[in-house]
Amino acid sequence: MKLCICGLGYIGLPTAAMFASHGVEVHGVDVNKHAVDIINQGKIHIVEPGLGEVVKQAVEKGMLKASCSACEADGFIICVPTPFKGSSHEPDISYVEAAAKEIAPYLKKGNTVILESTSPVGTTERVAEIFSELRPDLAVADENNDVCDIYLAYCPERVLPGRIMYELIDNDRIIGGINRVSADMAADIYAVFVKGELLKTNSRTAEMSKLTENSFRDVNIAFANELSLICDRLNIDVWELISLANHHPRVNILNPGPGVGGHCIAVDPWFIVSKTPDLAKIIGTARNVNDGKPEWVKQQVRNAIAKLNRHCTIACLGLAFKPDIDDLRESPSVFITRDLAQEYPDCVVAVEPNITELPVSLADKPLKLVDLDEALKADVILLLVDHKEFKEIHPVFSDSQILIDTRGLWKR
Ligand code: SAJ
């Protein structure tokens, strides 16, 4: 079997490498020429445990090749980003549409096309429309008819960054066919390496399922974040509260933090809200609660400085969007650190054990990247990420220092 995989980012590249290491010839496509060149050298342009070795071997064996354009294949998988349109919360599916247009000329009878990108409900049907417009010579899958030339399915990725190579194989997978036969064809493709269950449904349910999973997590984190605000006002330790409440056999509260980051949980719920704004009330409110948390954290710092009533240094511990990764994109810790550095120029230091230089968004701000020992001497210590390097130590602070522990790491 030969697959053409469009989009060689955090999902597309591991997926391409996984197929290639299971005997499938893979032609990977990306608009980023630099990424294409790196991959063709057997190297990777992203950080993911276990990925580098699999890519290296696949490229050496000639099973994985990257390019800036598509080619003929038995199956196509689209793994391109679906960001917001500008500064709105509306989904931008233009990369999916561009990928569909890129592969349309190469389609031939019997091909299966799979969309993996997180997408608003109805996007797979939009891809079918594009194929029908550009390839009137082919019968594209249609929900009312199981006889077709091109099979089309939506199969969301559900892997956790940092565990992708493991979860790709072991997670159950939702296979949403435009029609029944498309779900069967797509399931056959994933059966090459997936050990989890292949759960067949229609494309709209599969699209909604992906959005629902991440919204479920967002709503539950929002509940924990709201509790942290309430407990602060009522002078209750939220970490002790949650730990006690979680002893109830049917209660499992997640952890409050400085806000929700990454490209999934903080984004996907809006794809539901934008389709059904009058109905998605809890989902929209949860987004706003989580997005409001960084502002509350900054106010805690201002209160601490007012309490100390002197010129203060502030140490921000952790910049990544979650523990033990180097991914700083959409990280609330980066936003908080950036804003504090602007508000208190040359008073802010940051510690991030997983990077060696500040990201572009912080590079021109009046702050310094320092090591942990130096940071712990600051007047206000703001713990933002529960990295293992921070967990391993048990610092003792003097009475003239104030600790703001957004993860409950040193409080617990
Ligand atoms: N967070 C909290 N408190 C918690 C848990 C998480 O504040 O108790 C914060 C994290 O610090 C981080 C954010 O939420 O800023 C998101 O982290 P995460 O670990 O919950 O999720 P992601 O974004 O790394 O991956 C999620 C996963 N979805 C679910 O767990 C339902 C993953 O399985 C998906 O594949 C991924 O989104 C995706 O690509 O959609």
TrEMBL record:
Regions crossing the membrane: none
UniProt-listed NCBIfam families: NDP-sugDHase, PRK11064.1
Keywords on record = NAD, Oxidoreductase
Give the UniProt record's GO annotations in the biological process aspect. Answer: polysaccharide biosynthetic process
InterPro entries from the entry? 6-PGluconate_DH-like_C_sf, NAD(P)-bd_dom_sf, UDP-Glc/GDP-Man, UDP-Glc/GDP-Man_DH_C, UDP-Glc/GDP-Man_DH_C_sf, UDP-Glc/GDP-Man_DH_dimer, UDP-Glc/GDP-Man_DH_N, UDP_ManNAc/GlcNAc_DH
A single GO molecular-function term is: oxidoreductase activity, acting on the CH-OH group of donors, NAD or NADP as acceptor
Is this entry keyworded NAD?
yes
For this chain, the family text in UniProt reads: Belongs to the UDP-glucose/GDP-mannose dehydrogenase family.
The residue ranges of the UDP-glucose/GDP-mannose dehydrogenase C-terminal domain are: 315-412
Domain of life where this protein originates:
Bacteria
Q: Which Pfam families match?
A: UDPG_MGDP_dh (PF00984), UDPG_MGDP_dh_C (PF03720), UDPG_MGDP_dh_N (PF03721)
| Protein's recorded name | UDP-N-acetyl-D-mannosaminuronic acid dehydrogenase
